[in-house]
Design a protein that fits this description.
Length: 260
């Protein structure tokens, strides 16, 4: 029997420079992505003493992070972790904060050398500048990300995404589609509970990473994936810029695959 980690994709193709792989199920997709991320991490650790990674916090990433946390032969003590966005205005102990979600799903499960969490309090602008400085200390080797229902990457929604953004980390106002997604993902009970602002890594900061692994399951993401793959590259679908990254792989299941 073929294991989850080595199950072949049902379809592969190119979209610009981006590799696209489609799997029969969300579990197979997540396991395959984790397998590839783990292999990239092993190669990076073999080539350099320390590796820096950025992780998205979202239910769409649950399967890949679970599989990655149990991957063998990874020296996490030589890996520094970041995350790519955080809400402004939630209580520090609020379970909806992305840092807490990543603590539960990854950061507390493996022995990272260091984890840098975005802490907006007490001054979000100062927090964004501090996080940008931490990111700038050395190259980012690997980013694990997703795509939002409006095509956002990190919290770069269409109204605020800037492919030539001069900042690496900034404060943004979340659009209504993005906020509704948080309710649809069962992260908040009501639209009114979703914060209106967040701190996010910008598009250029994401695009400067060495390798991108983008995991996008579910039927709610199909239209966004279609736009990312086939629409003109523009901030109307921020994820469309991923087609220009020299080493980005997009992982889909049958529900998110627009060509199914």
């Amino acid at each position: 029997m073929t294991s989850l980690a080595t199950s072949p994709a049902t379809a592969t193709r190119q979209a610009g420079q981006m590799n696209v792989r489609v799997f029969e199920s969300r579990d197979l997709m997540g396991a395959a992505a984790a397998h590839d991320i783990a292999e990239a991490l092993r190669q990076a650790l073999a080539a350099k003493p320390h590796v820096r990674m950025v992780f998205a916090a979202a239910p769409s990433q649950s399967e890949v992070l679970a599989a990655l946390a149990s991957a063998p032969d990874l020296d996490w003590t030589r890996v520094t972790a970041f995350h790519m966005d955080e809400y402004i205005g939630l209580a520090p102990a609020a379970p909806e904060r992305f840092a807490h979600w990543l603590d539960q799903h990854l950061f507390d499960r493996v022995p990272f050398h260091q984890v840098h969490r975005i802490v907006p309090e007490p001054d979000p602008a100062a927090a964004a500048a501090r996080y940008a400085a931490l990111l700038a200390e050395a190259p980012i080797d690997i980013i694990c990300l997703g795509i939002g229902v409006n095509g956002h990457i990190a919290f770069n929604d269409p109204p605020v995404a800037d492919f030539a953004d001069p900042l690496d980390v900034k404060i943004v106002v979340l659009d209504d589609d993005c906020r509704q997604q948080q309710v649809d993902d069962d992260c908040f009970p009501r639209f009114e509970d979703v914060p209106e602002q967040a701190i996010t890594l910008t598009v250029p900061r994401l695009m400067r990473a060495e390798k991108l692994f983008c995991v996008v399951p579910g039927s709610l993401k199909r239209d966004a994936v279609r736009a990312a793959l086939y629409d003109p590259i523009s901030t109307r679908c921020p994820a469309s810029i991923l087609r220009q990254h020299p080493d980005c792989t997009l992982y889909l299941d049958t529900e998110s695959n627009p060509d199914a």
